[in-house]
Amino acid sequence: MKEQLEQLLAAAVAQLQEQGTLPADISPRIQLDRPRDKSHGDFATNLALMLAKPAGTNPRALAEALIAALPENSLIAEANIAGPGFINFVISQDQLLEQLEAAYQDAQVGVSAVDQPQRVVIDYSSPNLAKEMHVGHLRSAIIGDAVARVCEFLGHTVIRQNHVGDWGTQFGMLLAHMEELEGNELAMELSNLETFYKAAKNRFDESPEFADRARELVVALQSGDEKCLRLWQQFIDVSLSHCQEVYDRLGVKLTREDVMAESAYNDDLPQVVEDLREQGLLVEDQGAQCVFLEEFKNKEGEALPVIVQKSGGGYLYATTDLAAVRYRQNVLKGDHLMYFVDQRQGLHFQQIFTLAKKAGFARDDLQMDHYGFGTVMGKDGRPYKSREGGVTKLADLLDQAEARALALVQSKNPDLSMEEQAQVAKVVGISSVKYADLSKNRTSDYIFDWDTMLSFEGNTAPYLLYAYTRVMSVFNKAGVQPDSLTGEFVLEDERELALANLLVRFNEVVHSVANKAMPHFLCGYLFDLAGAFSSFYEACPILQAEDDMVKQSRLKLAALTAKTLRQGLELLGIETLDKM
Questions:
Q1: pLDDT of 389 above 60
Q2: Cβ distance 172 to 221 under 8 Å?
Q3: Which of 427, 513, 539, 553 is least enclosed by beta carbons within 10 angstroms?
Q4: CATH superfamily of 2-91
Q5: What are phi and psi of 189, to 5 degrees?
């Protein structure tokens, strides 16, 4: 609907250009928004205000000309001018009814596929395998997963890449500690990676002999020593198993096949440096090999270096990331590379993207974007930590979420069996943690608050999960299947119209999530949809409707609401429940 209206406006602009009312050399960006005062219409645009100056005319006069130049259509019921030149549009009810029916019948709930599907390579989660995943890994994993799901839903080919950290000096320390342990003792120690890491770190700090051995093992590992590689692989396998357990609990679509670790690029790193040297981009600075990009300068106006090889010969994140860009373009054949990494890495990725294109590692038309995110904060305004003051392991956080949700379920619905309570607690607990994060603006920090995220009031997972079960209860009482209704939509009550107008916006919202990589757009929409259904449900009797035609229409509105809620939550990676 929005796209159709934008096309009509584009045609009106073209006609005014042909007439000479608008300059022929401008290509305005036509954008429609939802008016704040919904009584003014369904869509609004400030196009006349934007074009008035280049046209040398009054905005309201130009708005009138734009309306007059709109092609004949059955989409617009009314167009009016507000304020200094805003144009408001009211969509015809016939169009609304047509879109409702199409969404009801469609497996995609009325969401259109993209016109030009791409191969989208999405880099997300990417934990350091030296330790177990902690709360700091939450945002990358679930935001990246939600955007990946949305891109797939819209028809893109999505290639997930889990760029785990499995290389570097810290692994020498871990290998040295593994050498000291044998058989069952080693297996037992590795069962808790956090404890194992701390023990290795203590040995490194306290024993000069151990520290020397750790440094020797780093060199041996990087030189391909067979014993070191065998120990290293054993550690990596255990660590990846821990990660996979967390991904499975979170409902994140990452598998071992998606892992493309730092070590996978080792063989290409010398070639990256050599290729930069051949192109005359390398400069030696204090023994290190660097590229100075004039696009990035410090406060003194000096170009900042991208260091690709340390003075001792070692490589850095920049070297690996450049190799990864080449691999994702040349081997994975990516059209769009998306990186979901902490926003503090913003400068790093801008430098990598710029250098990759300057060095010819990336085509000019290869799209590369870093989608940064804020930090999970505690109520004290600092990065979230456990009660003991340490970093909270993600597995422990999920355990606590399920335990809190179980207590909540038992108090709300003690009639459920123990098995049902456990299942509901699992879904509610995990969903609450995920939704509390996804519902916040990706670029902002947010406060982690158990009481808020597990509340049945407000924009929370429990509220939406309950809203879905409430809709489905209508069909349980009616004894009919939501997808078997045959009546037509009839919209008379203002609450029916409000719900209908929101339902047909699903397509627009899903596309906006993909375009901006902002899952909170979808969360806000689903919250509004649940609220609109609640208002409709209270004001418009469904099973006790005055006649069968109205009853069938209201049942279809309820069915489409349930279908939209379920699909929207699935795109966020959140499972729904039949009862709570």
A1: no
A2: yes
A3: 539
A4: Arginyl tRNA synthetase N-terminal domain (3.30.1360.70)
A5: -65, -40
